Amino acid sequence: MRSIDLEKTPLRELNNNLHQLKDGTNETEWDVLNPRGQHAMAVGLDAPVTVNIRGSVGYYCAGMNKQATVVVHGSAGPGAAENMMSGRVVVKGDASQYAGATGRGGLLLIEGNASSRCGISMKGIDIVVKGNIGHMSAFMAQTGNLVVLGDAGDALGDSIYEARLFVRGKVKSLGADCIEKEMRPEHHDALKALLEKAGVNGVKTSEFKRYGSARKLYNFNIDNADAY
Asked: Which of 9, 141, 153, 198 could form a disulfide with 134 if both were Cys (CB 3.0 to 4.6 A apart)?
């Protein structure tokens, strides 16, 4: 394991070292000490490595992640895992605004609460939040899954496209064109797989409700998309 102390090593040097990693690297385990809430940490990674950040981070941690596993042993500022492509990002504490925004793949697991606009414009990412999420979450969410074990704030799924939202707790209000939908067997199966992937045990899929698009705001009929 390689250990980097950010009280002694500049963040730019850490990120540069991580950017040099390629498939097949022997340096697969990294420990980052004293992050002190710095911004843009472990961004743009593209190698199957694990980075443990021992403390809280600022803006845009693990943004644009590919392949890597990034674990924040603390809380994360705005934009955690923004535009994530693949891999896994875990926030052990809480996450601030727009966590997982525009994410295209991979798994973002937030073990605490997430603030407003969690999963905004998500495009294929899977997001699992063990706590609550704030208002305007999954705004314009296109594809992917948002799983919330706690409650959701106002305007959940406003202007949503085809993303799937699963909420175990209460939803304060739904946004424009977002409605509650039936939990069919395939949705129970998909949710069970997501919970297992996130390491969430002892939770029944029957405790969740599913939300998605009423498809009333589309400027074409999505069922006929192949004909356009």
From this structure: 153
Provide DSSP, 94-140.
-B-TTTTTT--SSEEEESS-B-TTTTTT-EEEEEEESS-B-TTTTTT
Q: Any idea which residue has 């799937």 for tokens?
A: 164
Residues 6+ apart with CB under 8 A from 157: 137, 138, 139, 141, 163, 165, 174, 175, 177, 178, 211, 212, 213
**pLDDT of res. 6:** 98
The H or E element spanning position 1 is none
8 Å CB contact between 119 and 101: yes
Which helix (H) or strand (E) segment is 200 a member of? none
User: What are phi and psi for residue 149, nearest 5 degrees?
Assistant: -80, -20
pTM for the whole structure: 0.94
Sign of CA dihedral 162, 92, 77, 10: negative
